[in-house]
Design brief:
It is a single chain. By secondary structure, the chain is α/β, with parallel strands linked by helices. The chain folds into two domains: 1-22 and 56-102, no CATH class; 103-284, Ribonuclease Inhibitor (Leucine-rich repeat, LRR (right-handed beta-alpha superhelix), Alpha-Beta Horseshoe), CATH 3.80.10. The chain contains seven helices and eight strands, in the order ααααβββββαβαββα. The chain has an eight-stranded mixed β-sheet, covered by helices on one side. β6, α6 and β7 form a beta-alpha-beta unit. It starts with a helix and ends in a 53-residue tail after the last helix. Residues 29-51 have low confidence and may be disordered.
């Protein structure tokens, strides 16, 4: 689950171990600092550094020096560094429920997560949730904080949006669903303003979407949508695909990572009013450049030989 992966991540950060946390190395210096954040102690509160204790400056240097054995390993993000610094300056702020209030962004990538559990509701200030490259096939919006502005689920196994749209996230601005298993037709209207009133960016690339007309009818209600990715879907093979989208979604700025210029809008003006030009088929030409692994044929039979001739046949299959 996401909660289990987060607990493992916290274990790697070692927020309660030297040079972080409360221990003999800080003495009374941190015990008098009860306010969360990175502010300095008030005047008169700092105690003298005793024998075996380290100053906060020295502890912070151990975290920030890339050659230090306590430096963060490669791949950690700025928030991880921030949490460790808080654990030095105000250790109580990373103890128990207080920790969840500090986290605005949660990134769990490539951890084989299958379940988005209700433990995420503890992150009451969470704005960004990155769960790319996992094994998630189902995600329930009831387990997501309502404060989310970014939800990235790229490279998972999501095939249905029904549970995700059960309790819409009103503040969401980016929804990333690229490289999943979404397909047409939709069971209901899941990509409308009723579910995502503030959506600015939507990534549906490399799925199995085929119904362009139905998709456009839903996306047209997203008045704040400015960035759209649909490349890699079968519907992108339609000859009038880009022109139809550009004319149908006049507020769109970027389509498939390509900025929409005014000249392009003029070129495709009026295409949205001709849905009959949208064909549900495309022609694909496949050529074989090289075949490896085919057994060497028998040596050519001598003239006049009465031996039988053996014929080999091979089948080449393509998956689309």
């Amino acid at each position: 689950s996401v909660s289990a992966a987060f607990r493992e991540h916290l274990r790697c950060l070692a927020l309660q171990d030297f040079p972080c946390g409360l221990g003999s190395w800080v003495g009374g210096w941190s015990l008098c600092r009860d306010q969360p954040g990175l502010g300095a102690a008030t005047a008169g509160q700092e105690e003298a550094v005793g024998v075996g204790e380290e100053s906060p400056e020295a502890l912070m240097e151990l975290l920030r020096d890339q050659h230090s054995p306590w430096a963060l390993p490669p791949g950690c993000n700025p928030q991880d560094q921030h949490l460790r610094e808080v654990a030095v300056l105000t250790p109580k702020a990373v103890c128990g429920p207080n920790l969840f209030q500090l986290i605005r962004s949660l990134r769990i990538v490539g951890k084989e997560v299958e379940e988005v559990d209700e433990g995420l509701l503890q992150f009451e200030q969470l704005e960004e949730l990155i769960l790319s490259t996992n094994l998630i096939s189902r995600i329930t919006s009831a387990n997501l904080p309502q404060t989310l502005k970014v939800l990235e689920l790229c490279c998972n196994a999501v095939a249905d949006l029904q549970d995700l749209c059960a309790q819409p996230l009103p503040e969401l601005q980016h929804l990333g669903l690229g490289y999943n298993r979404l397909c047409s037709p939709w069971q209901d209207k899941y990509l409308t303003a009723n579910c995502w009133p503030n959506l600015v960016s939507l990534d549906l690339s490399f799925n199995s979407l085929t119904d362009l007309l139905d998709l456009v009818s839903q996306l047209s209600s997203l008045q704040k949508l400015r960035i759209l990715l649909l490349q890699g879907n079968p519907l992108a093979l339609i000859p009038t695909y880009r022109g139809f989208l550009v004319d149908s979604l006049p507020k769109l700025f970027v389509l498939d990572d390509i900025h929409i210029e005014p000249e392009e809008r003029d070129q495709f003006h009026g295409l949205a009013g001709q849905p009959e030009l949208i064909r549900s088929e495309a022609r694909v030409v496949v050529s074989i450049g090289e075949i490896k692994g085919v057994p060497v044929p028998c040596e050519q039979l001598e003239d006049g030989s009465k031996d039988s001739v053996v014929t080999y046949s091979y089948c080449v299959a393509y998956e689309f």
